[in-house]
Design a protein that fits this description.
6 strands; 3 domains; alpha+beta; about 240 residues; about 45% helix
């Protein structure tokens, strides 16, 4: 009887639309359902394991949506204005210091990357967030969530690269702290990233001279983002500090 119900659900016209509308659906869910529906059309039946998986996906899709977690952070208009100084998908990376799990002293470096959603996204104009333990965001990166125009943070961190609950919560808490800080003074937080990593927050290039190391970004990006960047003589008059 249950297999018949599953078969009717699998065969109905709007099934894929129903699955794709669900926030927690994955590409694998859709690919699997396409495959088993084709098998059902061709052979007339599925294995017990396949029916079990179909039931699991159906139950997930048909379950009442879970209330979304939201966290109020500082209003982000300064960050959006900052990023929009350079059109066409500009992004910035900032550093987070996350307490180490297990009672160890010290912190682990994690990094937050943010960009503005384009007109192709249903969240156009909102701040999109990625997190990684790699400042280059070449490996271990995950989607962290988004911040809407009112400063409402919607965490969506699956934590596939983090095993301990303590560290999961610590990453989210520090992300909130970082969002609050950059909302108040984007230039200061961007500068701190460059000073910590020796890389420009915008273009990822190594900071190679004394001025760029002190300011946390290079001359080219300073011009693009309308940031303070002194001449060599001005820098010397400042005593070699930003």
């Amino acid at each position: 009887m249950e297999d018949l119900k599953l078969q009717l659900w699998l065969a109905k016209d709007g099934m894929f639309t129903e699955v794709c509308k669900h926030d927690d659906h994955t590409k694998w869910d859709v690919s699997f359902l396409r495959s088993v529906r084709h098998q059902l059309d061709m052979k007339g039946n599925l294995s017990e394991k396949q029916w079990t998986m179909v039931a699991k996906i159906r139950d997930k899709v048909l379950a009442p949506p879970k209330p979304k977690e939201t966290i109020q952070v500082n209003e982000i208009s300064k960050v959006l204005e900052f990023l929009n100084r350079v059109p066409n998908f500009s992004s910035i990376r900032v550093a987070m210091s996350v307490p180490i799990a297990g009672g160890s002293s010290g912190n682990a470096d994690w990094f937050l990357k943010m960009y503005v959603a384009t007109d192709k996204s249903k969240f156009e104009g909102q701040l999109q967030l990625l997190v990684s333990c790699d400042p280059d965001f070449q490996y271990g990166k995950e989607y962290l969530g988004r911040v809407d125009l009112n400063g409402l943070f919607f965490p969506h961190f699956r934590y596939s690269n983090v095993q301990l609950d303590f560290e999961k919560q610590a990453i989210k808490d520090e992300a909130v702290n970082t969002l609050n800080a950059i909302a108040l003074d984007p230039e200061k937080v961007v500068r701190e990233f460059g000073q910590l990593t020796g890389q420009c927050s915008f273009c990822k290039r190594r900071l190679s001279d004394d001025i760029s190391k002190a300011y946390g970004y290079g001359k080219h990006c300073a011009k693009k983002y309308q940031l303070t960047y002194p001449t060599k003589k001005q820098f010397e008059m400042q005593g070699g500090v930003a």
